[in-house]
Specification:
Layout (H helix, E strand, L loop, with lengths): L1 E11 L5 E12 L4 E5 L6 H9 L6 E6 L2 E5 L2 E2 L7 E4 L11 H11 L5 H10 L15 H13 L5 E5 L7 H18 L3 E5 L2 H7 L2 E6 L2 E6 L1 H6 L4 H6 L4 E11 L2 E6 L2 E7 L8 E6 L4 E4 L8 E11 L4 E7 L2 E7 L10 E6 L4 E5 L2
Parallel strand pairs: 3-9, 3-10, 7-8, 8-9, 14-21
Antiparallel strand pairs: 1-2, 1-4, 4-5, 5-6, 10-11, 12-13, 12-15, 13-14, 15-21, 16-20, 17-18, 17-20, 18-19
Helix pairs in contact: 2-4, 3-4
Length: about 350
């Protein structure tokens, strides 16, 4: 449905210097899927989205929507002719209009007004009972849904969402994740979603592209991105993790034996490793099993509880192993006290060896 190839977009910085906001960005979004551009501020994700929308003019690359070239070296289709819908971070709700008038605005501008179409899209986002209400009297979540309705009323072939939940409070943002996911799946509309929030990306997406410094670091499913990061940036940005320096000793089938800062380990690698190669091991806190009894098997260590924080549904531990500290997460039933001995175990499949940057 959407194909982006070799996209490069520049802009002029405050001092007149040329800043390359997107560099050789390439990805495909199949019809009916939700694809997320995830990364920190300044990574190029919004620039990429605006380039797809036609709000930025790239300097190189190609963008195809539904088989139609909307940008290439010799082609630039203006935004209003691309057949796209977009929801901005600020929602851009017209304060002097009612809910109905806001949703109907794109149809009136394009002279394709249809009352039935407006009411249908308001029903889709559960705002049909608020059609006559002033838009400014809606709650934050309702305004977000109104902005979505206004983008959907033109029946776009591609929906672009630029951090649409960032202005909501934490609990409402969590509820709206489920609402957005339901709507996207029900309507089957191809969607590109931009966010810096890893939880949003993991919860909503069919596929995620993690961006950094204008480039895509990794593309994969939420589970692949979280469990099989390709490098240290992805592992660190998506979720919490522990990093351990290690040296490769030998290979055992799909696994490797390494010597790490906390002792010998059996680990998994996404790329082939050579003996004596220095690597970084990533282990998620929830993948470290804590116990007051020593377990058998690989990746078992003895440590001392340095710190613990009760969070209700879980307890965060900081455990000292040798001269290194590991973050761990356990069930509240584990009552080991600070300065007491505790044993750690990590499944080799959850210990990922990453090549050094």
């Amino acid at each position: 449905m959407l194909t982006v190839t070799g996209l490069c977009t520049d802009y002029v910085g405050e001092r007149g210097q040329v800043v390359r906001a997107a560099q050789e960005v390439a990805f495909e979004v199949p019809a009916g899927k939700l694809f997320t551009l995830l990364g920190p501020s300044g990574c190029g994700k919004t620039t990429t989205l605006r380039s797809i929308a036609g709000l930025e003019r790239p300097v190189a690359g190609e963008i195809r929507v539904g088989g139609d070239v909307v940008f290439s070296k010799n082609v630039f289709i203006p935004p209003n002719r691309r057949g796209l819908g977009m929801v901005f971070q600020s929602y851009a709700i017209w304060p002097h209009m009612t809910v109905f008038e806001n949703a109907a605005f794109p149809l009136r501008v394009s002279r394709k007004f249809s009352k039935e179409k407006v009411l249908r899209v308001l029903k889709t986002v559960a705002l049909e009972d608020f059609a006559d209400r002033e838009a400014t009297k809606l709650s934050g979540g309702q305004q977000q849904r109104l902005a979505l309705a206004r983008a959907l009323v033109m029946e776009p072939r591609l929906l672009l969402l630029d951090e649409p939940l960032s202005n909501l409070d934490a609990k409402l943002r969590e509820r709206m994740r489920f609402e957005l996911k339901r709507l996207q799946r029900e309507l089957g509309i191809t969607t590109v979603y931009v966010t810096h929030d890893q939880s949003e990306a993991l919860a909503l997406s069919h596929s995620i592209a993690v961006m950094n410094g204008g480039r895509i670091e990794q593309i994969g499913s939420p589970r692949e991105i979280y469990e099989r990061p390709r490098n240290q940036f992805v592992a660190d940005f998506v979720g919490s993790t522990n990093f351990l320096e290690a040296r490769v000793l030998s290979r055992e089938g799909d696994f490797y034996r390494v010597s790490s800062q906390i002792g010998g380990m059996k680990v998994l690698a996404t790329d082939p490793l050579a003996n004596d190669e220095i690597v970084t091991i990533s282990v998620r806190p929830e993948d470290i099993e804590l116990s007051e009894r020593k377990n058998d098997g690989p990746n078992v260590w003895e440590g001392t509880v340095y710190q613990k924080v009760f969070l209700g549904e879980s307890v965060d531990f900081v455990v000292t192993v040798g001269e290194h500290q590991l973050q761990c997460k356990a069930h509240p039933s584990l009552r080991t006290r600070v300065e007491e001995t505790i044993y750690l175990r990590a499944d080799p499949e959850k210990c990922v060896a990453l090549k050094r940057n």
